[in-house]
Amino acid sequence: MYNNINCACGLVVALIFLSATPLQAQEFKSYKAPVYTKSWSAPSPYPDRISITFFDDPATSFSVSWRTDTSITEAVAEVAVATAAPRFWRNSTRQQALTETMNAMHIANAKVVANYHSVTFTDLKPNTLYAYRVGDGEKWSEWIHYRTASKEQEPFTFLYVGDAQNQIMELWSRLIREGYRQEPDARFIIHAGDLINRAHNDSEWHEWFEAGGWIHSMLPAIPVPGNHEYNEFNPDEDEEHLSYQWRYQFTLPENGPEGIEVLKETTYYVDYQGVRIVALNSNDMPQEQAAWLDQVLTDNPNKWTILTFHHPVFSASRGRDNEVVRNSIKPIIDKHKVDLVLNGHDHSYARGSTPAEAENITSGINMRDRTGTVYVVSVSGGKMYTLKPEAWENYEAKRETAAENTQLFQEISIDNDSLYFRSYTATRDLYDAFKLVKEEGKPNQIIEIKENRISQRTHDNTIAYENPAVRDFEDGNLEKWDLSLANKAVKVDHGLARNGNHAAEFNISAENPASFITDPYDARIGQTTWYGFSTYIPEGTGLNTSYTIAKWTGLPDNEVEQSREPALAFQIKDGKLILTANTDQAFYSTQESVRRVELKVDPATFKKETWNDVIVKVRWVYNKSGHVSVWLNGKQVVEYTGPIGYNDDDGPIFHLGLESAGASSEYGIIHDEYRRGNSMEDVKPSKFDIMNAQPDEN
Length: 698
Ligand SMILES: [Fe+2]
Ligand SMILES: [Fe+2]
Prior knowledge:
This protein is mainly beta. The longest helix has 15 residues, at 168-182.
């Protein structure tokens, strides 16, 4: 219906902008995954994926597991007390390995056959530096050093990392190597689940072993499985299985709940120099593990108790909650006054604690300096989520420190009655630190260590995690859009365009009063998102009444949640911009709980027969930290801070189009240059310069 619109008007606009100094929208770098070929991760006759673990008493034993191809059917390991004389191996002993063939040819993303070998060295001397190597008698690994634990309660340090999981080879590598640089004498590393992304994917496991390299062969791993260590073997199957490689490549303690095969080598404990470290499998059988944990913590001669499992008791990130874990495991944690709980899963960082229990406390003690169990959620790999805006307010716990968009490792040192906890970024900046002090019969004293910590890192003050999106219609189709609200009344037209040659044309009528195309992207609650689009309103299309040109709506969290007004909508009435916005703090919205947000718009006019450039910056949060800024044709017309949007798992999605309840005949509008990103630079139309944009005459 725009045949009567010729390109002259567009040309005028183009000339206006071209006459200013046009700034090309900045090129952004989008993430592109590297390619790993099948041969890259294939086994060979030489030992690889060498990892050490605890199987029995760390003072007198340790285990080693490694992989070869199936040509190596007999394997051995040698161990000797290490000395500086190169022929220390004259004193070595040799041990036959247990060799098992892992045939994963039936698993879609594994398709590999390999031999796994393992040895447990026993009867070693405590606190002694050993050298070991693995091989077949001819083809050997290097000699690798490992020190046994002391029998006594002696000071030591260990590392703890959250999910490696994503971009393991690219990015987890630097993190774990900085961890090693920080504490090369760490006695072990706790991996709190989601070591890889797709449980059985052999290439991802290869990334994990390559990224950590010989760190895995020098520092014992205490791994627990995350939800990503469980998956179907094949897409057409319903049952999920523990990562097929898990039990082949880690030789872990078999002191978990007796007779429960599925928990074997995923639920266990290790006593190390006065500390009991208990690893739970938070994917399965919480009641059985709670009962076992109660027992393990009842008969516990160690001074300190540390728990690790994947799913956090107190979730760090938006839209996440693990009620089952909280209901089953936390009572046991409380009962036994566990000192520290180390979790993953949320791809962000949070540290805090439950209040100290006042019972058995001598009078005069300052309870503010006392704490119950300290809980930590951390992430080490490349995937990043957004923090809960309400912190741990709903959990009867206090979150002290939090981070977004930051790879972290943790260094934990125990020295008799003191535990020092330090969290470092991937660039080894100190991010979080505190000290726990144990005193007989009292809750732990907690001392915040604020010196030398860097300030809080969020999505809003760090390099963008999300890729910006450009939908300028220049590809001539609507493939990247969700068209479920489009009513077939939208088409990509060649002709009038804000830039280039194509724009999207929307037509409505009395029978068809709305037509929208949807950007299928859930904004993140608590994170600032920028949007940009340009709109052309033709003369004489009868749009004199109120009409909507763009809106953001949220999806209900469940079926009882009532449908709601848009979180934000752009309406035009008599050429004037009107913004309607809504908010709701309640997780399940009702008609009564939704509140209208007053967004004051400076007088702003959408001009006809010319392009109007809109830029919107929104921090979608239903609490006071929400924010909305709007620019129309380069002039800021809205500046609002306060609640915006709904308390939903995901933030709203964007719709661009046209809607008019009063449509009595055919109406039309054209949109172009939709962008979503992390800055004004990301979303402004190309050939747009905010300094030189045409001022609004009103
Ligand atoms: Fe994860
Ligand atoms: Fe997870």
